[in-house]
Amino acid sequence: MNTQPFSLQGKIALVTGSSRGIGAAIARRLGAAGAKIAVNYAGNRAAADEVVAAIAAGGSEAIAVQGDVAKAADVRAMFDAAIERFGRADILVNNAGIILYKKLAEITDEEFDRLFDINVKGTFYALREAATRLADGGRIVNFSSTTTRMMLPTYGAYVASKGAVEQMSRVFAKEMGPRGITVNVVSPGPVRTDLFMTGKSEETVQRMAALSAFNRIGEPDDIAEVVAFLVSDGAAWVSGQNVGANGAVA
């Protein structure tokens, strides 16, 4: 019996969108648990290098891997880089994503396409690669949002993209089960990241904090701890689930 269910010693993880925010916190947390990490970034190499350095300082190993998840070839190259460096891939965390705050009537075709290219196609491309390239007994965590459970004006297209991720994940959990691979979704509530905080007044942030049972918004490390459990041996019997990491917001 595993006496250290959160230990990831010897595991190899690819975390998309992990140069900052929640993704960076996840990469650092999995590295601290012993995993070797492929830190994916779209354009900010300096930020990715900082995450790599933090993981190395903690005693594990990491590489920075550039790639746009909206491009199938880039996603394939991410897996190539991780497997070439570390020998295999055990864990996939599909964290990369964007948000759009606009009423449906105001969204342009280009904005809608970009949202779905990253949030839905990006997840799909990574799952398709994982289907044949992730090691048996592996772990997959995809990202949705607590906002899919709410009816918030200006969130319509965003929650539609995350709803697609949720449904793909449920089906993929059944498809990957025979290989012992779990597939789960994490749905954060409000989290203190640059993506979330941009354009919000302190009053707005406090109003959202008041929705939580703990009267605060989440921190990236709160979400990273949930992911660390889901990719550990301790979560071997948890699959096809959507975990709301939101402080009882919804």
Largest sheet: 7 strands, parallel
CATH architecture label name: 3-Layer(aba) Sandwich
Give the domain tally: 1
Fourth CATH level, the homologous superfamily: NAD(P)-binding Rossmann-like Domain
- Percentage of residues in helical conformation: 40-55%
Question: Would you give the CATH topology?
Answer: Rossmann fold
The CATH class designation is Alpha Beta
What general outline do the C-alpha atoms trace?
A: globular
The helix-strand sequence is EHEHEHEHEHEHHHE
- Strand arrangement across the biggest beta sheet: 3-2-1-4-5-6-7
DSSP summary, beta strand count: 7
Indicate the proportion of strand residues: 5-15%
Low-confidence stretches: none
Q: How far is it from the N-terminal to the C-terminal residue, by CA?
A: 35 Å
- Derived structural class: alpha/beta
Number of helices: 8
Query: What gyration radius follows from the Cα positions, in whole Å?
Result: 17 Å
